Fold this protein.
Amino acid sequence: MNDSISAPARSTLSLHKLGVFCGLAAAVWLGSAEAPTKLVNVCFSPFIISMGMVMGAFVARWTVPTLLKGTGFLFDDLRKKPHLIVWALLAGMLWAVANTLTIFAVRNVGLAIAFPLWNTNSLVGLFWGWLLFKELRGSGVKGWAKVLGGAFAIVGGAGVLALATAQQSSNTPGRAAIGIMAALGAGVLLGTMYIPYRKAYISGMNPLSFVTIFTFGELGTVFLLTAINLGGVGQVVAELHRARPMLFWPFLGGFCWVIGDLFQNFAAKYIGIGRGIPLSNTNQLWGLAWGALVFAELSGLSPTGKLLVITGSTVMILGAIAISMAAPKDSELANWKFAMDRECDRYGLNKQHVAAVVAGDDPLSGQARGTRWWEVLIMCCAVGVFVWLAIGTRAQQINVNMPWLIALSLATIVPLGVCGTLLYRRTRFS
Amino acid sequence: MKPSTLKAILTDVHLWVPVAVLALGTALLMTLR
């Protein structure tokens, strides 16, 4: 049966609203991705926990796009824009180096200082969006004030929250400079990672195709860096084997991370990196909610600390509201089109087709597709990996508040359903 | 990949900005170790 006939009519939701919903849903899932890793015993190297998350993300980054669009669509998309494979791999490599730097940052200066420093990635992304992709140009003073003010508020709120909640601090002052450099470096790398994101989406690439390639750059580089840091490939394999009973949790975190990452990519596509990335960077609020409500991590917090948490959260929410209300004007959209035309001219892309995809109306998205045997195999392998890891898994003994666990799990699943439905109805995941 | 596409990639500032940042980030990481 033809999918375009049987599927419900397209929604008329504005792309700005859709992008804002995607950015906020990304924050929920990126924040929730931290929760499973709390169940990992602390005796494991952070490199191995990070490696486990990336391996889980690798599995999910193949299966979710296959499930939603099918391998035929993904390969067709990549075949039409083969040059973007370079940028997708590059983005994965940038993420991997940045993530390793964050580990060094937390070790040397603690989370309180490190987190706000690398959270400046949204400001770096905003700068590249303005410089290279003409974002915010023609948006007027009001538009600038909302987006820039909102982005600074989110970074500032993140700083206040990190100060209030950090349990760690550096007890080796001589290494502070190293930690600060590592955190700032991570911020620049993560902010620069959004250049490939935006380039891919104004060229008409589907976010699902992009992440499928991204994951190779990410896994390959993380594996290499972990091997260097742990002293060889054999050491990595031995550590992974030792961590086997706990590996399910970072894998699950990686899976949640991919859901958030996909929403972040759709936000970058529909509202740009200047608006989409600060919104998804409110994930710290959700990480805080899981830590405070489910794992009671803030039970001993002083009244000043509680005040800081409320202040930081409020500032962050106000920043997100400001950005949500900053819909691009026609004059800014004309600049977005200029950036899109540059890609089309440079790489010989069909302008009409790209414009349709950028507007969420991919002409190929309504085509019927059958399920191929290897797609079923990919699904079975992915489910098999998770089931295999789940069997005999152990969790760190940790008190969990069950009512809050259920409430936050629901609060995580609801945006997935709502935003997934909105994306399907408006764009068919294009 | 066509030679013209390859040339377009290699002369694209969108490539060299992330490549330069990646190189600097990797160098920083190696220094910090």
In short: The mean pLDDT of chain B is 94.
